Here is the input.
Amino acid sequence: MAIVNDITVLSSGNKVFSSVLSKKQFFGVSVCVPKIVPDVRVRNRARFVEVKSTLQINLDEKNVYSSLDLDLDGILGFDVVTEKELKEKGFLGLRKTKLICTIGPACSSFEDLERLALGGMNVARLNMCHNTREWHRDVISNIKKLNEEKGFCISLMIDTEGSQMYMVDHGIGSSVKAEDGSIWLFTTERYEGSRPFTVQAYYEGFSEGINVGDELVIDGGMATFEVIEKDGSDLRCKCTDPGLLLPSAKISFWRNGKLVEKNVELPTLSTKDWADIDFGISEGVDFIAVSFVNEANDITLLKNYLSTKSSEFIKVLAKVESLESLKNLKDIVEASDGIMVARGDLGVQIPLEQIPTVQEAIVDICRQLNKPVIVASQLLESMVEYPTPTRAEVADVSEAVRQYADALMLSGESAIGSFGDKALSVLRMVSNRLELWSRAENKQRLLSQCQLGVSLPERIAEQICNCSVEMANNLGVDAIFVYTRHGNMASLLSRNRPNPPIFAFTDKSCTVKTLNLQWGIIPLLVELSEDMEDNIHRTFKLVKTSGMVKKGDVVLVVSDIIPSSSIHPSFQSIKVKTIV
Ligand SMILES: Nc1ncnc2c1ncn2[C@@H]1O[C@H](COP(=O)(O)OP(=O)(O)OP(=O)(O)O)[C@@H](O)[C@H]1O
Ligand SMILES: CC(=O)C(=O)O
Ligand SMILES: [K+]
Ligand SMILES: [Mg+2]
Here is the structure.
């Protein structure tokens, strides 16, 4: 072992680990030094190691590597998965669609999470409906450990429980069959164990405003009842469409083919949700997904709360899963930092056959308004039990990718299924395939773009991004490099769904974690100065050292770094550079 400047290098087999001992704060990055030592990687937690002098590294255990001279003047914040993909498939082979996994008992150990990370998980989702905060805390700490020690770049999302009407788990652990014509009592009375033909309904006011003759639907169609009698707050119902009553099944009411909206009566953020949000803030999560959002104000309220806690960098995603949220869609999209099309509960509130078109419309409006959008629920549902997907599921995943959703999400497939890794690889392969097809067919040419910017600088940034993507596609450049503090221009570029990948260089770790969710963006943490030429010079040197680009590669460079001292009129710029 030898201490060299501010880096300690330890060797173990032919892997080299290092830890940084300098005054600077460093975060999750890997560096590769292929030209000097084939197969040897110095993995460390450096953000940008400024080692001006030549490094002398002596590795006692491996004499062959002793006394190496490494002339590094920086380390690039590349995560291991992208680095591997880039080496194997080149720029155009990099996957654009981002992948989210819900973490549950089937994938919560460090080893399970590492497998998902290697499989391309960009964001880990913790559903606060299930399990304890201590359990979630352990998962979060494992993810942070993977990022810090193994060079991954995984963002963290918590998903609130929200309030909705559902059946209290009747305690027998399995489903009960409701036969045609059988009479059932839906009650708010609380009792232990189970009673025949009786269902405990969660939410005291569940029967308020419900009339005899209304339909009570379980889980969006699993079973249907007709209300035949009201007894106080209890409802006596006759089964008209037999089916299964699963533990915690969801309840909705319908009258003359229309949903009786009960969701609006319930608070979007309950006392438990606020406690979970505080938990998320203290654990430093990157996204909070809010369940059962009804209106834009639900989001604004939380965003205001986050700013009073100095946590405005946490992005707030609105889950579209109620009929009310569809009525207020545009306002909700504008107020939030992104959207999740939560098809599970949405299917309880709107007829199932409407889901595909509603999804397409939501994905489109999000891209227009430059907000990331996630397509979630039942993408590969059969894989909870089986190791291969159905053909219909593959078609559904393909459709979401074809629509240019930013991200796809696994729920039960990863949380409780036996084939989480396989499900993730199906998402990965289908995404790659469809992205290739869209590119070959020039599909992104058909994407329309509305003007978002109001002020002149905003409009300039938007125009630069639109034109840059057109140029990048027409010139067939290998990559787009964007220098950005808060990710604005990176996101405007992504909105145009360009052919080449977008490498976003930022000096803010929260921007890295946010951009992780967005289509086609590979965020990289580096040090940025106000001198753009210097930024470009340094990062180009870094990407060359890392083996990321080679001589002759053409890169389109875009920047939105604003010098703080004087507002330089041309702070936003486009350049096309060939690597020399
Ligand atoms: N942290 C967890 N602990 C235990 N089980 C979990 C956990 N997270 C998810 N699950 C299980 O995985 C299933 C699918 O997860 P998912 O997040 O889609 O939940 P959900 O209950 O359908 O609710 P939501 O509408 O919020 O998504 C859940 O029904 C639950 O059984
Ligand atoms: C993800 C989620 O909450 C749903 O599909 O209902
Ligand atoms: K939830
Ligand atoms: Mg839901």
Q: What stands out?
A: Residues 420-440 form the longest helix (21 residues). The chain has a mean pLDDT of 84. DSSP finds 16 helices and 30 strands in the chain.
